[in-house]
Write a structure and sequence with these properties.
eight-stranded mixed sheet; 45% helix; Rossmann fold; alpha/beta; 19 helices; 16% strand; 415 residues
Length: 415
């Protein structure tokens, strides 16, 4: 099968969707011998879509682990120009505001639709909304009469990003839609998409590297003592709850003053706010915090193995792949009662849930794990078993492939 994946970023770009498409693409090549090509941008993250000053990857073609990758240059200046007008239009709920939001978010990629339309694929699959390349993939597929599968990564609680009627019109025109959780699937169906064309596939993780890394080895690598470590490992963004975690830790340190805090993620614009919050903390607390920016995928087993409690108090996620990575390292997790997260974490069985932006509840959950380390380890091990049974990349890639084959079949019947 000749597959074209269209996505906003690809390794060494960092992000959940970036990793998902990378690992699914590699598994399709290695497991099934499929011919997989990825069309993507030359940006390291989504901020590059509207900020022309950020560093870029080299545009052009390369091959990574058997996957052919073509990086297209992004025109950031147009998106940058409408960043302020779209904020005003959104605030005033003007009728054209969702189009301005789409343009401001980008990525604007000259020539992408034409390249998709001309590419000799059996199937075209694109990830993720609300970004512009999704429409290029759909229109390119329709113009070349090819089946199109859309993978949205929708988290409905993000009104700015996902309260856009054009997203659901596009999904209705696709051959199949892939969702990360049943929560997302139900929401898309509520927007009028036919249930028989919505499939839950989930996301995955490679458990083996996490098995081979000891906690002692990982803590030593990052310069931690043997005291417990609370960790956040993921994208630094406004909705991810890093600021809430820092506020919660001031309460934790009143009871457990020796606990260390690891904050690891890509150095985004929000990282400056995180640094400002840390700067305002008392010196005794600052010494307990380690910031670790722009880590590679290869470092993840070390990062997750170094923590004793994984706190990821994000306000909305389409899944939250970081929970799987923590479980792969047998760590207990804390998430928020928001979006798809309660469909991922079984509360009291493999993790705990708290209210979004509630620093008191988050602190109490962290303290509960620190006071009951044997119980915390039990929850982490239950999470690991869940990963092994349902969320390996091998299993997830098989689900993607089954949908691709069915999409090709259905498209043939319809034509």
């Amino acid at each position: 099968m000749k597959i074209l994946h269209v996505t906003q970023g690809y390794t060494p770009a960092i992000g959940g969707t970036e990793l998902l498409i990378q690992r699914v693409s590699e598994e399709l090549v290695q497991q099934f011998g499929d011919d997989v090509t990825v069309f993507t941008t030359n940006c390291f993250n989504g901020e590059g879509f509207f900020n022309p000053k950020l560093p870029r990857l080299q545009p052009g073609n390369e091959e990574i682990n058997g996957v052919k990758v073509r990086r297209f240059p992004v025109n950031s200046r147009i998106s940058q120009m409408v960043r302020f007008p779209q904020k005003v239009a959104y605030r005033l709920n003007l009728p054209f505001n969702e189009y301005l939001r789409t343009i401001s978010g980008g990525p604007i990629i000259p020539g992408l639709k034409k390249a998709i339309q001309e590419f000799p694929a059996d199937i075209i699959a694109a990830s993720s909304f609300p970004l512009l390349h999704m429409y290029a993939a759909l229109n390119g597929a329709r113009n070349s009469r090819k089946p199109c599968v859309l993978h949205g990564g929708i988290h409905p609680d993000d009104d700015w990003a996902f309260q856009r009627s054009r997203i659901y019109r596009a999904i209705a025109q696709s051959t199949y839609y892939l969702s990360n959780t049943k929560y997302e699937a139900d929401y898309v169906i509520q927007q009028g998409v036919s249930p028989e064309r919505v499939v839950v596939v989930g996301v995955g993780v490679d458990p083996e590297p996490f098995e081979q890394t000891s906690s002692t080895q990982a803590k030593k690598h990052f310069g931690f003592e043997e005291q417990p470590v609370v960790g956040f490992i993921g994208q630094f963004g406004g909705h991810k709850g890093v600021d809430t975690l820092l506020q919660a830790m001031t309460l934790v340190w009143e009871i457990f003053p020796d606990v260390q805090l690891l904050l690891a993620g890509a150095k985004t614009m929000f990282a400056q706010k995180v640094e400002n919050i840390i700067h305002q903390l008392p010196e005794v607390y600052k010494k307990q915090i380690k910031l670790y920016y722009n880590f590679s995928n290869e470092e993840k087993p070390l990062l997750f193995s170094a923590v004793d409690v994984f706190a990821y108090p994000s306000g909305f996620e389409s899944f939250g792949i970081a929970f799987l990575e923590a479980w792969a390292a047998s760590k207990p997790v804390i998430g928020c009662r928001a979006g798809a997260i309660p469909w991922v974490i079984d509360e009291g069985k493999d993790g705990l849930l708290v209210d979004y932006k509630n620093q008191q509840m988050l602190a109490e959950a962290i303290i509960e794990f620190l006071k009951n380390s044997s119980w915390a380890k039990t929850l982490g091990e239950v999470g690991r078993q869940k990963v092994l049974s349902r969320y390996t990349w091998s299993k997830v890639a098989q689900k993607f492939r089954e949908v691709y084959l069915e999409a090709i079949k259905q498209h043939g019947i319809q034509n």
